[in-house]
């Protein structure tokens, strides 16, 4: 999967490719934590959506 962030806190533009193992590293104050927040928010919502769909299908 690949994601693109634009104008998100200190991040002007970033493309993030997520694999089985994804490392986020860099200098201090460059937005690593905000990338983690964005990915967490996206994947936690994704999990809710998938769960809702599976629940609906089973009903």
Protein described:
- There is one protein chain.
- The chain is of the alpha+beta class.
- It has one domain (2-58).
- The protein contains one helix and two strands.
- It has one helix spanning 32-58; strands at residues 2-8, 11-17.
- A two-stranded antiparallel sheet has the order 1-2.
- The radius of gyration is 14 Å and the shape is globular.
- The mean pLDDT is 81.
Give a short summary of the structure.
The protein is α+β, with helices and mostly antiparallel strands.
How many beta strands in the DSSP annotation?
2
* End-to-end separation: 30 Å
The rough form would be described as globular
Question: Biggest sheet, strands in spatial order?
Answer: 1-2
Helix content: 40-55%
Report the average pLDDT across residues: 81
- In angstroms, what is the radius of gyration? 14 Å
For the largest beta-sheet, the strand count, sense and barrel status come to: 2 strands, antiparallel
Written as H for each helix and E for each strand, in order along the chain, the element string is EEH
The assigned structural class equals: alpha+beta
Low confidence ranges: none
How many helices? The count is 1
Q: Which oligomeric form is depicted?
A: single chain
Outline the fold blueprint.
Blueprint: E1 2-8, E2 11-17, H1 32-58
Antiparallel strand pairs: 1-2
Which properties best describe this structure?
59 residues; two-stranded antiparallel sheet; alpha+beta
